[in-house]
Amino acid sequence: MKKLISVIVVSVFTLGLMVTSLNAGEKKLIIQGSTTVLPIAQKCAEVFMKKHPEANISVRGGGSGVGIAALIDGICDIADSSRPMKDKEIKKALEKGVNPVAHVIAMDGIAVIVHPSNPVNEITLSQLKEIYTGKISNWKQLGGKNQKIVVISRDVSSGTFECFNKLVLKKERVRPDALLQASNAAVVSIVKRTEGAIGYVGLGYLNSEVKALKIEGVFPSQETVLKGTYPISRPLFMYTNGKPKGLVKKFIDFVLSKEGQKIVKGQGFVPLK
Amino acid sequence: MRKVKENLIKGFFCLFALLSIIFLLGIVIVLFKEGLPIFKITSFKKFLFGKLWYPTYEPPEFGILPLILGSFLVTFGALVISVPLGVASAIYISEIASPKIKEFIKPVIELLAGIPSVVYGFFGMVVVAPQVAKIFNLAVGLNAFTASLILGIMAIPTITSISEDAISAVPKRFKEASYALGANKWETIMKVTLPAAGGGITTAVILGTARVIGETMTVLMVAGGAPVIPHSFFEPVRTMTATIAAEMGETVVGSPHFHALFAIAIVLFLITLSFNILADILSQRFRKRLK
Question: Which residues of chain B have a pLDDT value below 70?
């Protein structure tokens, strides 16, 4: 019995220590979610904290789904998301008394990339769809070399895939032997080393080691995405619980300000103005 | 007073010992709580033997057969590489190498285990995969073969160190008897030492298998990630672990896809659990036999 009591005493004591350390620091802001939005949130938080030394912002990744779930559970103040919230998530939030409000903070274009040695420069949306669904499987069919197309896609739960799926595949199934990669960086890394490869990544991940294709005659760039002429683009979101107040409002306002949008551009995304 | 203090300290350590059991229990409960709801949507048979994994489409397909086969194929390939290499290294270290060489090689092999798997994955993606593509004239080098190669190397430390323990545990009198009967070193190793250490080596192989099948980051980066039923080693595959890691972050919490990922984790958990139990039984039997 004595043993049991001492066990309980010790464990309660340890727990108490943990709880008090969690409550330290008053002006705390937790941002969590999409890995696509992560660089924007991180850089903005960095600059924001320099201007407001009393604020303590912690930024975490994890993915859009994780961020939204954290917002619903009240674990974070702002959820980054590269996709709009699903009906099911909104329903769940309302049930828990959380009223999610969306803030579009930037636009992102999805560029289609190939190996630099590939002679093909241009592609139409319907050709792109046929490549990803398996109807076109050789570059010869597009006026390129006689070479098998290695189709590289993102994981089917990623926000980038969801946008590509909606705008290009029109919800048709991607061919099952497509290489599904977990990040934009991985797609770039494979495409630059594989001659027959085709992949798609966010605008911020374009570099000189891969070649971006014109789609329907339009080259992906910040200007064409902003003008709306480039066909594959999407908004990026930050979600808050109800209309933002206090520190949350200050931060969202900062992201949407001229200075914040400059950071958006600096990270390779498309600013709203 | 002294007794109270002693009890307090005892309780403190007891708490820590109990913690890992509590954690394990918690993990198992969460796994089943979050995983089982998927079987309200799809049948057990359709889940395990379905050939299509399209979790985010309308209507979704939750067939994990390609993922199970992907995991098994990569694991099998890795064992083909790591078992001969691992066991041979163990024999060399414990039976042949001079103490000086042994002192050098053993820590080096154990160092292999200390390299983070993301480093292995990066090495595989950047260095090994392009070479594999060139040598075998493939369009892309990210496939089951490359993944097996890397995972095989990763499993060597596990297999070597446990096998080495087993070989070293063979009583000296066995070998002395063999030499006394006129057997040479090779015959003694092959016909006396190895059979005597057989149970321990089997344990090593099983634990190595469990290590490989549970490996995530490396296969995520190197195996290609296509959820198709593989027909050869040179096709891209997607394993159960890679699927969970890649898809969990973005999925809607509480959706069928979310539950399906947990159900994959249950399958994986049951597989590694049975490997561990098997290894435990075998090593116990082995110890009894040597006595």
Answer: 289-291
> Chain A: nearest CA to B66, how far in angstroms?
10
- Cβ distance A65 to B251 less than 8 Å, yes or no, reads yes
ipTM (interface pTM): 0.78
Under 8 Å CB-to-CB from A147, ≥6 apart: which residues? A138, A139, A140, A195, A196, B139
A108-227 folds as: D-Maltodextrin-Binding Protein; domain 2 (3.40.190)
Q: What local confidence, expressed as pLDDT, does residue A155 receive?
A: 87
User: What's the pTM value of the predicted model, to 2 decimals?
Assistant: 0.82
Task: pLDDT band for A191, please (50, 70, 90 cuts).
Answer: very high
Nearest CA in chain B to A83: B250
Interchain CB distance below 8 Å, A177 and B52: no
Residues of B in contact with A69 (CB under 8 A): 253-254
CB atoms within 10 A of CB A55: 16
CATH of A22-107+234-266, one of 3.40.50.300, 3.40.190.10, 2.160.10.10, 3.60.40.10: 3.40.190.10
Res. A25: pLDDT tops 60:
no
Q: State the CB neighbour count (10 A cutoff) for residue B155.
A: 29
H or E segment to which residue B46 belongs:
helix B44-49
Q: With beta carbons under 8 A apart, name residues in chain B contacting A9.
A: 8, 11
Instruction: Check if A22-107+234-266 and A108-227 are the same fold.
Output: yes
CA distance, residue B262 to nearest chain A CA (Å): 15
Residue-range domain boundaries for chain A? 22-107+234-266, 108-227
- A177:B235 CB<8 A: yes
CB atoms closer than 10 angstroms to residue A270: 23
